[in-house]
Write a structure and sequence with these properties.
The protein has 313 residues and is an alpha+beta fold. It is 27% helix and 27% strand. The protein is built from eight helices and 17 strands. The strands form two sheets. Strands 8, 9, 10, 11, 12, 13, 14, 15 and 16 form a nine-stranded mixed β-sheet that branches. A hairpin with a 2-residue loop joins β15 and β16. It starts with 11 loop residues before the first strand and ends with a strand. Bound molecules: 4'-deoxy-4'-aminopyridoxal-5'-phosphate. The site of 4'-deoxy-4'-aminopyridoxal-5'-phosphate has 14 residues, from α6 and β14.
Length: 313
């Protein structure tokens, strides 16, 4: 049976400066963004520190700065500063007494204008939080997932703006995700309009060959905050990381491949297009990076302490 909802409801959602009861955080059906995808959003995680009464929000400032950049690209006037959005995030987590959660800020054009031109539409800002486990399944983090190249290309750099985490960009992601899920795969690998490997529907992509880590450059992808974290961690561990274009056949004979993302964290890939990657399970580099990443998010590596916003529940 398909569950009606995979969202665990909590008490409050922050909306336009106030905490409102979960069920009352609604919007008018004629909101501009609902029709034209003109909103922008973020995805952030808050992790509990094992055996302690505290939690850390991972790279909160960086996410809120990206939200501001997304608004700039989309020409949305965001009425809250980065610091105000950070405070609001902590306020809503605290109000819901959540030790660990996923955080979804959304800036959208609300009710008042129905033409494509959004000029004059009000800007609404919400921050929702709820408990959310491993995005691609708990087993995926261990065993790795099976992926397939999507027949849908990622957007051309002048079609939609990949550096904006814009709602409309996810029409492309949803098409690709549904296509591969219906064929029995866990996630889609998307190519850019020149045919180079790009990213997934909600994750950045890495391969490893002969100990060297490769990831596509920022050209046509989202500037992932997990991607950035993994690159830094990998370099600190002494690995060479190259940001360069490559093709899907290079992935077929890679030793290892994995996705990075706030929701997916660091998920190993065991198969692409029915070709086993490496040994068919998480390889040594993937495992080392995964372990280092999980230490970083839980505050167990002082080198990355500046990425964490402390929150006591
Ligand atoms: N690419 C896309 C298309 C995404 O939706 C995401 C998730 N935000 C990512 C990459 C990974 O970004 P991050 O590590 O900042 O979550």
């Amino acid at each position: 049976m398909v569950p009606l909802s995979d969202i665990t409801e909590v008490d409050y959602i922050w909306k336009n400066g106030e905490l409102v009861p979960w069920a009352e955080a609604t919007t008018h059906v004629l909101s501009h963004s609902l029709h034209y995808g003109s909103g922008v959003f973020e995805g952030i995680r808050c992790y509990k520190v094992p055996d302690e009464d505290k939690s850390y929000v991972f790279r909160l400032r960086d996410h809120m700065e990206r939200l501001h950049r997304s608004c700039k690209i989309a020409q949305i006037e965001l009425p809250y500063s980065v610091d105000e959005l950070m405070d609001a995030t902590l306020e809503v987590i605290r109000a819901n007494r959540l030790p660990a959660c996923y955080i979804r800020p959304l800036v959208y054009r609300g009710y008042g204008v129905m033409g494509v031109d959004p000029t004059g539409a009000p800007v609404d800002v919400v921050i929702a939080v709820w408990p959310w486990g491993a995005y691609l399944g708990a087993e995926a983090l261990e065993k790795g997932i099976r992926i397939k190249t999507s027949s849908f290309a990622r957007m051309h750099v002048n079609t939609l703006m990949s550096k904006a985490k814009a709602a409309g960009n996810y029409v492309n992601s949803v098409l690709a995700k549904m296509e591969v899920k219906q064929d029995g795969y866990d996630e889609a690998l998307m190519l850019d309009t020149n045919g180079y490997v790009c990213e997934a529907t909600g994750e950045n992509f890495f391969i490893v060959r002969n100990g060297v880590i490769k990831t596509p450059p920022l050209t046509a992808i989202l500037d992932g905050i997990t991607r950035d974290s993994i690159i830094k961690i990998a370099r600190d561990l002494g690995y060479t990381v190259e940001e360069q274009l490559f093709t899907r056949d290079e992935v077929y004979y890679a030793d290892e491949a994995f996705f990075s993302g706030t929701a997916a964290e660091l998920t190993p890939i065991r198969e692409l297009d029915n070709r086993t990657i490496g040994e068919g399970h998480a390889g040594p580099v993937t495992k080392a990076l995964q372990a280092a990443y999980f230490k970083a998010i839980k505050g167990q590596d002082p080198r990355y302490g500046h990425w964490l916003t402390n929150y006591k529940f």
